[in-house]
Structure formats: C-alpha cells, structure tokens
Amino acid sequence: xxxxxxxxxxxxxxxxxxxTTESKQFLLLQDKPVFIHTLEVFxxxxxxxxxxxxxxxxxxxxxxxxxxEYQLDSRVRVIPGGKERQHSVHKGLEALGTDWVLxxxxxxxxxxxxxxxxxxxxxxxxxxxxxxxxxVKDTIKQVNAEGVVTATPDRSSLWSIQTPQAFRLSSLxxxxxxxxxxxxxxxxxxxxxxRQGMSVKVVEGNYTNIKLTTPEDLQYAAFxxxxxxxx
Length: 231
Ligand SMILES: Nc1ccn([C@@H]2O[C@H](COP(=O)(O)OP(=O)(O)OP(=O)(O)O)[C@@H](O)[C@H]2O)c(=O)n1
Ligand SMILES: C[C@](O)(CO)[C@H](O)COP(=O)(O)O
Description:
Enzyme class: transferase
Structural class: alpha/beta
Order of helices and strands: EEEHEHEHEHEEEEHHEH
EC number: 2.7.7.60
Strand order of the largest sheet: 5-4-1-6-10-7-11
Site (Positions MEP for the nucleophilic attack): 155, 211
Strand content: 15-25%
Bound molecules: cytidine-5'-triphosphate, ligand LQXTBERG
Number of strands: 11
Organism: Paenibacillus xylanexedens
Distance between the termini: 29 Å
Helix content: 25-40%
Shape: globular
Keywords: Isoprene biosynthesis, Nucleotidyltransferase, Transferase
C-alpha cells in the first residue's frame, strides 16, 4: 500500500542576510511567525500524511510551543537541524516513513496548493523529481573573480528555482547519502539528485513564491499579505 506523501519544512537557518536579531523564520507576519504560515499551507492538504519541521537545536522547544499554539501539533513533528541546509534536509528525510517527499523552505510562506499539487503530480508522472520554478526576467551573466563577464547564457533556458522540490523518498535519501559520502554540498535538493543522474522536471510556479531572504522581502511579504493570500 502506497505510504503517500511527507513534507520536510526546513527552518534551522540563521537568517544572516535578513540582518535581524531574531532568525527570519520566526519573524511575525500579521502577528504570526513566518514558519507557521508555511506549515499551515501544507497542513491543510489531505495528501500530506507526515510533516517534519527541522529547526535549530536551541529553537526546538519554542517551535513545539508555537506548533501547539496554532493547533498543528497533531500534524507536525519538530526535530533539530544541522549546520547547512543540506544537513537539515537530510535529518528531515531520515525522520519520514512515506514513499514520497516534498522539501520546502520554511521561509517561503506564499506557496499555494495548486503549485504544491503540480509538483507532486510531476514527480509521480516523471518518475524522478520535480521542482517549482519561474523563468528568469533579467539577463543572467557568468562573472569571474575579477568581476569580468565570462558568459551570458541564453535566457530562454534559465529558470529561477524555488521549493517545494518533490521526489520519491528512497531516491532522494540515496542522493543525500552519496553527497555526504562524497563531501558534496549543494544549494538545493535537486542538485543532489541530478548528480546521481536523476531526471528533474521544472514545474512553472509564480513569482510570489518568494524566499524571505533580505529586508525588502519583508516589505513585499506585507504587501502580498495585504492582498488575498490564495491557497
Ligand atoms: N543550516 C540550515 C540553513 C538553512 N536552513 C533553512 O533553509 C531555508 C533556505 O535557507 P536560507 O534562505 O539561506 O536561510 P538562512 O541560511 O537562514 O539565511 P542566510 O543564508 O541569510 O543566513 C530556510 O528556511 C532556512 O531556515 C536550514 O534549515 N538549516
Ligand atoms: C533551495 C532554494 O530555495 C532553491 O532556490 C535555495 O537554493 C536555497 O538557498 P539558500 O541560500 O539556502 O537560501
């Protein structure tokens, strides 16, 4: 019997680029922590059987308190993360018992159900992985250490990759274990699957699925929350 879908929500970072004392995943948007907004989106999906929140060791207890306060404790387990995003994801993957997994950044609260379901469907139909993404709007250039342009890739082939990223759990776990053995550190989950030769499909999302990273993202987040937050 298919064991369905699990989700790993990663929220164990420092949020250095945000420049706030409080880590960005715990900042309040309309009086609610960013990561709670994110958890609520996935908790509302019946397709999700298991949810794991990965946070800093020192933040596990207060995250458990917040999860309880927002009546998510029957849906969400809280576990400690690691030094890098990759380490945190790996711990989350090891905590799941499902057949499929979505990995999502806890600081992307504006993902919606249509996008999540599109990612899930693409992973299943493609047999490999699927990632949400949007076509880049700016011209992207490769630049060397001296700040000199070395290449301008064809923009029509460039996508800005988001999360969630969806995979068969066993395949992604295997890719994570290989990366650990090889000492390879990637910036997203698909990178680890690609290096194992796995096919990864891009699913077009939208530009509002931002990752809260720098202060101006908070202003945009407030604007987005001011409008109707579509699920
Ligand atoms: N060791 C880490 C590092 C990052 N993350 C999570 O991965 C997501 C994307 O990472 P990023 O936006 O880079 O967050 P930070 O690492 O906190 O940001 P910064 O690089 O500015 O410190 C975030 O939800 C973050 O909490 C994590 O779970 N564990
Ligand atoms: C996974 C990711 O959100 C895809 O764009 C991004 O790579 C995370 O990068 P970060 O530096 O860990 O925020």
